[in-house]
Amino acid sequence: MVTVGGSLRSVVLQPRLLQLSAQGFCFTALNGKSPLPGHTCSVPQSTGFTSARCRRNMSVVSNMSGIWTPSGVWAASGVLKPSGVWTPSGLWTPSGVRRFSGVAGDDGAGGWYSALSDSPPVHLCEHFLVSAQQLSGLPWWLSIAAATLSVRTLVTLPLAVYQMVIIAKVEALQVEISELAKRLRYEVSVRARERGWTEKQSRFQFKKNLRRLVSELYVRDNCHPVKASLLVWVQIPLWISLSLALRNLSLDQSGLQSGLAAGGALWFSDLTLPDPTWILPVCLGLTNLLIVEVFSLQRLEATRFQKYVTNVIRAFSVLMIPIAATVPSSMSLYWCVSSLVGFSHNLILRSPSVHRLLKLKTARSETPYSDLLSAFIKKYFR
């Protein structure tokens, strides 16, 4: 799951994943037309790709890889290009890594979800996961965990550090902003008496000029708060793409699906099926709830809006448990490992050594971990 700590700052909810269709398609689907009367389609499974076989009640001359229609048009289940790349039912790269997602038409049953699961970022994540497993030679469950750790460390951790630096600069400006607000309020009151402004006009002039002054401070210190949301804008699409890539790999009828089916461990031996014991989903929910509580403890006087956001994310963390129990174990394993890695990164970034290394100006505790443990015990066990 996406790090809940970042969501607490930006209030971004994660979409619920829908079921992915693994059906093939006929010649009529390739041309965007409805099947002819009495015409049905069936999709047999194969080890390399999905081929569409069309049948009619009338006599039709068929071939292994295509259908001769009465009009004499040959409908192929895929197009063999001169370069040897087989499309659209599957794409085989020179390294033997296949493009797994099927091609869905604009009027397909999947709609936007089919387009999303067949998008280039998802295909890129598929190739990344397959290449990582093939190069490392690790079992699939360990390869998924290692790939998650590498992505969270090399991509999202630097963005989390950048976010922390921006937030620290904004917090350091609060004292200066308060002083500016006091002087501005006095100047506006003097000008209001000179020009006969009403209370509404005075308030408007105060807010307008305060926004201008604060914006100038953000530009001076290069710390506009919008920059702190960069982590969310990268992390959310990355999380969705990797989740859909694992779902495509788990549902694809190929040799890699059998590898995933035998690539689990312990109680989740088959990564293509949901976890029957619910251990992974429950671990995911508990980890996300723990992250929420850690961030709530650092707020001594939370506002009503902050309390509302915290409760919403708590509810969503609990909702993720039954959702994770209905998806392949490969996805719930990725979500659980991602949350654990994100939680460990959050703890590391609390270290005073990290703050000194980044030269953060805000006051921080020299014993953050013992303070956090004491606050947790005081809130829940006393």
Report on the architecture of this protein:
The chain has helices at residues 4-10, 27-30, 112-117, 120-136, 140-172, 174-195, 199-221, 230-251, 255-261, 279-297, 304-324, 329-348, 352-358, 368-380, and strands spanning 40-42, 53-55, 66-68, 74-76, 79-80, 86-87, 91-92, 98-99. 29% of the residues are buried. Strand 5 and strand 6 form a beta hairpin. It has 382 residues and is mainly alpha-helical.
Structure, briefly:
Helix content is 58%, strand content 5%. It has helices spanning 4-10, 27-30, 112-117, 120-136, 140-172, 174-195, 199-221, 230-251, 255-261, 279-297, 304-324, 329-348, 352-358, 368-380; strands spanning 40-42, 53-55, 66-68, 74-76, 79-80, 86-87, 91-92, 98-99.
What's the average pLDDT? Answer: 74
Tally the helices: what do you get? 14
Count the E strands.
8
Strands ordered across the widest β-sheet: 1-2
Distance between the termini: 31 Å
- Identify the overall geometry: elongated
Look at the helices and sheets and give the structural class: mainly alpha
Please render the helix and strand layout as text.
Elements: H1 4-10, H2 27-30, E1 40-42, E2 53-55, E3 66-68, E4 74-76, E5 79-80, E6 86-87, E7 91-92, E8 98-99, H3 112-117, H4 120-136, H5 140-172, H6 174-195, H7 199-221, H8 230-251, H9 255-261, H10 279-297, H11 304-324, H12 329-348, H13 352-358, H14 368-380
Antiparallel strand pairs: 1-2, 3-4, 5-6, 7-8
Helix pairs in contact: 4-5, 4-8, 5-8, 5-12, 6-7, 8-12, 10-11, 10-12
For this entry, give a set of tags.
elongated; 382 residues; mainly alpha; 8 strands; single chain; two-stranded antiparallel ribbon; 58% helix; two-stranded antiparallel sheet; 14 helices
